[in-house]
């Protein structure tokens, strides 16, 4: 079983509401998505109805729910392989909503 305690992560926000988590994920991401509950990031099940997940460079930023402790926004750094997997998965699922697109570079 995968446990967040065994991962190298950074807490960007803690003890927040789901709306605050969504805003934080969007603000710290180049691309952001709203995924259905049950999706996984690095084997961690995301709890809730709709969970924000973002990508910034090679980092994954997401809302994490720890039972009895509430909502957090976490950053997993340098997750190149997991990021590729998630992007491919999200592009195929019509239940995943894109919240923010990567800004286009100069012409």
Structure description:
21% of the residues lie in helices and 41% in strands. By secondary structure, it is α+β, with helices and mostly antiparallel strands. The chain has one domain (7-100). It has a six-stranded antiparallel beta sheet with strand order 1-7-6-5-2-8, with helices on both faces. The chain has a two-stranded antiparallel sheet with strand order 3-4.
In angstroms, what separates the terminal alpha carbons? 47 Å
Helix/strand order, N-terminal first:
EHEEEEEEHE
Note poorly predicted spans: none
Which strand order spans the largest sheet, edge to edge or round the barrel?
1-7-6-5-2-8
Using brief descriptors, characterize the structure shown.
globular; about 110 residues; six-stranded antiparallel beta sheet; about 20% helix; alpha+beta; two-stranded antiparallel sheet
Outline of the structure:
This protein has 107 residues and is an alpha+beta fold. Helix content is 21%, strand content 41%.
Blueprint of the fold:
Elements: E1 9-16, H1 18-27, E2 31-36, E3 40-41, E4 44-45, E5 50-56, E6 59-66, E7 70-76, H2 80-92, E8 97-100
Antiparallel strand pairs: 1-7, 2-5, 2-8, 3-4, 5-6, 6-7
